[in-house]
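Support reply, case 0932

Customer input (verbatim):
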Amino acid sequence: MIDAIVLGGGIVGASAALMLAQKGQRVALVERDFCGSHSSGVNYGGVRRQGRPLHQLPLSQRAHQLWADLPGLIGIDGEYVRSGHLKLARSHADFAALQAYAEQTRGFGLGLQLLEHAELRARFPWVGDIAVGASLCAEDGHANPRLVSPAFARAAQRLGASVYEQAEVIRIEHDSHQFQVHCANGLHLQAPWLLNCAGAWAGTVAAQFGEP
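Our regenerated output:
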């Protein structure tokens, strides 16, 4: 028996599978290619809170705490570095927007530092004259996406999750009790819960249930 099927082996799907497995749920993670081989594995690896909408910040702060012990979570450090996230203002209007954001987020513990032109040039001379100021979130950073995304899937697998790669989903049904997931390779899974973590293909999955 499976408690939940997670569609999509990127960092969202793999981390969802990991957290469910940590809670003792029986999970199947289904990926049409290889875990972390699409968007989650080919980006700049930013791990940031700065710039996120206010309603996302409580969850971002919780994630920030989890990333602090990445080896304990997924078994590797993923080349995660809290190198800082610098957001540049190319006009005075942009800088005013950064000031407003810093004020709005003051209670969330981001520790934003507003840098006017002279201080910005003194601390980061490579920026040049393109910016009139900036906002620095010193505790934000980046990781290596090619390492981190697959590691989340492997960590879930070590906790008992079943990971199915090269399993392209061709049809999903719901029989009023369970989801039935059919894959091109003949794999057939069923569970009462389905998590749609398919990234750019999530709309195609949702369209099968009238919610494109």
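We compared this against your earlier run and they match. Two observations from our side: The mean pLDDT is 96. The chain has two domains: 4-45+144-207, 85-142. Please reopen the case if you see a mismatch on your end.
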